[in-house]
Amino acid sequence: MVREGIVLLLGLLPGIEVIGSAGDGEEAVALVAAHAPDVVLMDLRMPRCDGVEATRRIRAGHPSTHVVVLTTYADDDWLFRALRAGARGYLTKDADGTQILRAVQDVVSGQAGLSPGVQRRLLEQVTAPAPEAPAPGELPDGLTPREAEVLVLIAEGLPNAEISQALRIGPATVKTHINNLFAKTGVRDRAQAVRYAYRQGLAQPPRTGGSGADVT
Questions:
Q1: How far apart are alpha carbons 151 and 187 in whole angstroms?
Q2: pTM over 0.90
Q3: Mean pLDDT per segment of 10 residues, for the chain of length 216 residues?
């Protein structure tokens, strides 16, 4: 229903002709191969092939086709993955027709079609020091660097909302990382996760002021 609504909206915008719509990334790649459109409006979370992989394949095989992400996911993980894959624009689904039209026109003319909010987050990411991520080769139980970062912040006592702010990712993404690291490490709650982080040397337990004893 959302896709059909976007197609109807695009059909009302001047200078835009919709030549197809796809239900997932695989279908999007096939439609680009068949029709060579100027621009693809790409969602991110889709079955079979997500929008990041579809963008990467489209840009590799059809460099004249530009990709503008149009998604509900506004956190930095998705944003930077999409841009690294070759997306030239990034909008969230609260964008109106004028914003979509401007982004399409921008990427066709060789500019970046980024919403003001995305531009602001990119600037913040460039100017602010990023949290130090553990090296992938040093991580136990198949943890990703991002999952290890979340685990370290849990060990520091941060709630989900503060983890979200510290890593510049959405609250839903924080919960996903926590669920994944719990499953990989076999812990059942945050207290066990903290003890796991201490055992693996990913975080240091706090020390009391006088005795120097570890508090676990």
A1: 11
A2: no
A3: 85 89 92 94 87 92 92 74 88 84 90 75 62 61 90 90 88 91 92 89 65 37
